[in-house]
């Protein structure tokens, strides 16, 4: 099917099913992903995932993360990563990783496949988490801050380990592992230094009474209101490119780049226009394509080894939800609040598919394990909003936004 026809079919099906699921009290992303499953090779086979759709999906991820970053504050997210928030992040990564290694040991996988299984199970997809939280209206709540900061830390940790594994020479030794780990650590510190340094510079300029917003405002006067959107895109793209150039996924850099933007620095009077433009592009077009494209990756061939598939799915879901619940309880959340956090952290989506596809392309894992990992990514992303909505009603969510308690 030609690209434009595929896009048209995906958008129409995703929007229709998304609307149906909203009517049923579920987030639109559930219907959008099911649309991809139905249209993809797993069921009807009308649309096959290809490089062109993957490129459009990457653009969608970028804009979804950008829109989420604009809704949040760097200080709040960094604060959630420290102290008590770090407890949740460490538990949400370490427990699923260990559980994945346990499944690999039980089914006699080799060390490299074991590592990638644990790695993929430990991931929480940042784009999926922020989109779901945004649809539920919870992105600025305690659950939202802890979920996003945990997703960021989990994805950074997973990409850090992936960077070490990809950079290892064929003849590995303890010295080679330590050297490679040191290089990847320096790259991560360079990215952190860029984010922290620019934030410190903007804060210093503010304190000196220098109007940082004057530059963007002048460009808007010269080139029109659409120039603001271009300025923001270029700014965030620069951080995404820096992240990608250092060997990490562009989502990490793009998210922190978006967090640096706020009304003080980028034309407060036009901020709402910027948000409306982004929401129109992402919600109306790119986000449905992205989530439908995840559904396209589902294949029933992953179900050949039924026992292994069930074991991986059960361990992936149970370990992540338990880790989120346990971490939430440790930081003082109520039982329902902590369990809701665990449900949101369960979605893996695009980030797991990124790691799995890289491992498959490099020959670290075979086709069967890759199919199982795709199934886990799609299944966990599908059930994440369903389980959260089953746990927390709409009225309870509204009360939580107002009071901070369910």
Rounded average pLDDT: 79
Q: What is the distance, rounded to the nearest whole angstrom, between the alpha carbons of the first and last residues?
A: 47 Å
**Low-confidence spans:** none
Q: Number of helical segments? A: 18
Beta-strand portion reads under 5%
* Residues in helix, %: over 70%
Structural class of the secondary elements? Answer: mainly alpha
Largest sheet, in brief, is: none
Count of distinct strands: 0
Q: Using the alpha-carbon principal axes, give the shape.
A: globular
Order of helices and strands: HHHHHHHHHHHHHHHHHH
The rounded Rg comes to 21 Å
Quick recap:
The chain has 406 residues and is mainly alpha-helical. The protein is 79% helix and 0% strand.
Give descriptors for this structure.
406 residues; mainly alpha; globular; 0% strand
């Amino acid at each position: 099917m030609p690209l434009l026809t595929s896009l048209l079919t995906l958008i129409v099906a995703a929007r229709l099913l998304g609307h149906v699921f909203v009517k049923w009290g579920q987030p639109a992303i559930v219907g959008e992903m099911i649309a991809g499953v139905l249209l993809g090779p797993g069921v009807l086979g009308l649309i096959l995932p290809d490089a062109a759709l993957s490129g459009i999906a990457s653009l969608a991820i970028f804009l979804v993360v950008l829109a989420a970053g604009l809704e949040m504050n760097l200080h709040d997210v960094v604060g959630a990563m420290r102290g008590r928030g770090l407890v949740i992040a460490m538990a949400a990564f370490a427990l699923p990783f260990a559980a994945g290694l346990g499944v690999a040991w039980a089914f006699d996988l080799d060390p490299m496949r074991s590592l990638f299984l644990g790695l993929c199970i430990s991931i929480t997809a940042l784009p999926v988490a922020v989109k779901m939280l945004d649809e539920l209206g919870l992105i600025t709540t305690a659950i939202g801050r802890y979920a996003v900061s945990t997703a960021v830390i989990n994805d950074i940790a997973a990409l850090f380990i992936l960077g070490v594994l990809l950079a290892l020479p064929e003849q590995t030794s303890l010295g080679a592992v330590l050297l490679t780990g040191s290089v990847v650590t320096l790259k991560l510190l360079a990215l952190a230094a860029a984010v922290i340094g620019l934030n410190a510079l903007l804060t210093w300029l503010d304190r000196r009474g220098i109007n940082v917003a004057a530059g963007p405002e002048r460009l808007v006067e010269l080139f029109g209101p659409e120039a603001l959107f271009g300025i923001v895109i270029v700014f965030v793209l620069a951080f995404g490119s820096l992240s990608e150039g250092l060997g990490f996924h562009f989502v990490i850099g793009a998210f922190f780049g978006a967090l640096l933007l706020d009304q003080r620095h980028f034309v407060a009077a036009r901020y709402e226009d910027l948000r409306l433009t982004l929401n129109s592009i992402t919600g109306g077009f790119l986000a449905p394509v992205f989530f439908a494209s995840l559904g396209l990756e589902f294949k029933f061939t992953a179900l050949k080894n039924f026992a292994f598939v069930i074991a991986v799915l059960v361990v992936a879901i149970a370990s992540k939800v338990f880790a989120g619940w346990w971490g939430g309880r440790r930081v003082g959340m109520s039982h329902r609040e902590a369990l809701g956090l665990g449900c949101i952290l369960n979605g893996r989506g695009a980030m797991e598919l990124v790691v799995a596809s890289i491992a498959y392309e490099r020959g670290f894992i075979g086709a069967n394990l890759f199919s199982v990992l795709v199934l886990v990514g799609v299944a966990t992303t599908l059930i994440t909003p369903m389980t959260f909505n089953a746990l927390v009603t709409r009225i309870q969510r509204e009360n939580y936004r107002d009071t901070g308690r369910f």
